[in-house]
Amino acid sequence: MRASLRSRILVTALLGVLALYFLLPVYWLLVASTKSTGDLFGSSGLWFADFRLAENLVNVFTYDDGIYLRWVANSVLYAFVGATVSTLLSAAAGYALAKFAFRGRETVFNLVLGGVLVPATALALPLYLMLSNVGLANSYWAVLLPSLVNPFGVYLLRIYTEAAVPDDLLEAGRIDGAGEARIFFSVVLRVLTPGLVTVFLFQFVGIWNNYFLPLVMLSDPALYPITLGLTSWQSFADRQPELYQLTIGGAFVSVVPLMIVTAVLQRFWRAGLTEGSVKG
Amino acid sequence: MPATARRRKALVPWAFLAPFCVLFLLLFIAPIGYAVYQSMIRVERTGPMGLGGAREVFGGLENYSRALSDPAFVDSLGRVLLFAAVQVPLMIVLATVLALLLDSASARWPAMFRAMFFLPYGVPGVIATIIWGFLYVPGVSPILDALSWLGLEVDLLGPSTVLWSIANIVTWAFAGYNMLVIIAQLKAIPGELYEAAIVDGAGPLRLVWHVKLPLVRPAIVLTTVFTIIGTLQLFAEPLVLKPLSTAISFTYSPNLSAFNEAFNTNNQALAAAEAVLLALGAFVLSFGFLRLVGRGRR
Predict the structure, then answer these.
(1) What is the pLDDT of residues A79-103, one digit of tens each?
(2) Fewer Cβ atoms within 10 Å of its own Cβ: the N or the C terminal residue of chain B?
């Protein structure tokens, strides 16, 4: 369909204005990360002053014996391990719910669906008490374990499996004498790859962005993910003004790679969704 | 098939389900049960002046009535309900409009704009709040500078404005994500459907209203449910903005209040009751919404 020139100009101009809104805070962060603490409060937020990006970054990475790098490593650990394991568990459960008829199937599925509607923050407080009873609070496990359960992933992968994995394929494998585990790992997982990538990415970003769970669980700064680390800097900044600049520099460093990844991997964000979540 | 083989076959789906189900029971169902149990406990002190030790006894629903008769907690419930009543429609309309604009034949460079709108999803909510916090503070914020140059003096962190400053952060962070879910469904619509509608003489607006919107309905329902649950959990934004705004207290949102009871005043039972009330509210509203749209469909 051809659109008139007038409507093209109008729509594109509107998109441009909206883009300014979404980019403004990122642009401000970029400019602010190059400034000294003095210029942060004394110069216009929209343009560069004395350019000190390198110095600021050195400060971010060396402050407090390089604790920032430790937070980055922790975030990567929580998000990568959590997303990998939870995606595999969701795939196995989604496959069982999609391709086997057994008693209790709908009960399990309805419980999982109910789990999607439970706010994660309501679980965090009782989980903290439970984990501290068994001595696991304030440990890597306290953040990792709850990140392994992703009911929405099970839901997505059940629907994705129904649409993407033909029954004939499974029957062919069984006739060839392949065991059930082998069929799952070497046939089903391969067919499910686009859906797995989508579920992995959502869970990865979900864990990476999570704040409430680590805040409740952790008291040792050496275990903090970036979100918790940066807010701890920010909360001390009124007493130690150089922490303003560290917070901004640290936010800048943490935000840039993830934004590039979300932009580059957009294709995958959609791939699984088209077949999955939003099916009638 | 012999009976043993049949029994073994019946176990196959459970073997695939087991790892997830065990963790789901331990880390999802058990905490809910534990929170409900905790919310019904009363700690009784024995001995002279309560120094003889503490004893936990069954207190029934008294923690709930205590939470619901605390004006600060009731205020916080009202605040998130007001917040959700504005934020949910705002978010869904904006996400739908963004998706439809990008999908329309009039949009130039849709891939580039889509990437720009989706960008904030890669920024954790607390970091988005830290950044916007700087943009709300007089003396640092270029937005306030520009407004005051125009002769407008606004306080974005005052008692009547800070909730909407938070709404702006939430909108900025999640509109692109919701947009993407709706776009995914728009892309799944077969092209012939559009062609048929255009042959029938439908203009772009009628195409949107009569073809596209009905077809992306499931995506809109899904994003609405997640937005309802998300907005009721309001926590990180007010906590991070708290040092900047005197309008934000520890009872600003129900979640903040429960967190405060658990970690600052050490009243786990009251915290549990507040968390259960919040989860119940989220469940009732999201489930109620699903029932409502489910009925409209049949």
Answers:
(1) 999 999 999 999 999 999 999 999 9
(2) C
Which residue, among B108, B226, B144, B148, has the nearest Cα to A119 in the 3D structure? Answer: B226
Distance from CA of B19 to the nearest CA of A (A): 6
Say which residue the tokens 């350019």 belong to.
A51
Task: State whether A130 and B109 contact (CB < 8 Å).
Answer: no
Question: Kind and range of the H or E element at B286?
Answer: helix B268-297
> For A204-218, B180-194, B252-266, which range has the lowest pLDDT when averaged over its residues?
B180-194
Residue A17 lies in a domain: no
Kindly state whether B289 is in contact with chain A, defined as any CB-CB distance less than 8 angstroms.
no
Q: Is A139 on the interface with B (CB under 8 A)?
A: no
DSSP state of B154: -
Domain CATH number, residue A202:
1.10.3720.10
Q: Strand B41-46 to strand B53-58: parallel, antiparallel, or no bridges (unpaired)?
A: antiparallel
B71-297 fold: MetI-like fold (1.10.3720)
Best CA proximity match to A226, nearest among A208, A244, A240, A246:
A208
Whether A251 sits inside 8 A of B13 (CB atoms) is no
Whether residue A15 lies inside any domain: the answer is no
The confidence score (pLDDT) of residue B48 equals: 67
Phi and psi torsions of B53, nearest 5° = 125, 165
Contact A121 B235 (CB under 8 A): yes
Task: Report the number of distinct structural domains present in chain A.
Answer: 1
pLDDT confidence bin for A238, thresholds 50/70/90: confident
Interchain pair A274, B187: CB under 8 A: yes
Would an 8 Å CB–CB cutoff place A13 in contact with chain B? no
Task: Tell me how crowded residue A214 is: count the other CB atoms within 10 A of its CB.
Answer: 23
Torsions phi, psi for A51 (to 5 deg) = -80, 110
Q: Could you tell me which chain B residue has the CA closest to the CA of A8?
A: B106
Query: Cα torsion at A154, B17, A137, A200 (round to 10°)?
Result: -30
Predicted confidence (pLDDT) per residue in B249-287, tens digit: 999 999 999 999 999 988 889 999 999 999 999 999 999
| Residue A29 placed within a domain | no
Chain A residues whose beta carbon lies within 8 Å of the beta carbon of residue B259: 125, 216
**Would residue A280 count as lying in a domain?**
no
* Nearest Cβ partner for B23 among A3, A89, A234: A89
So where are chain B's domains? Answer: 71-297
Cβ neighbours for B258, distance < 8 A, ≥ 6 positions apart: A125, B271, B272, B274, B275, B278
AA letter at A16: G
Q: Which domain holds residue A227?
A: 52-275
Question: What ipTM is given for this predicted complex?
Answer: 0.90
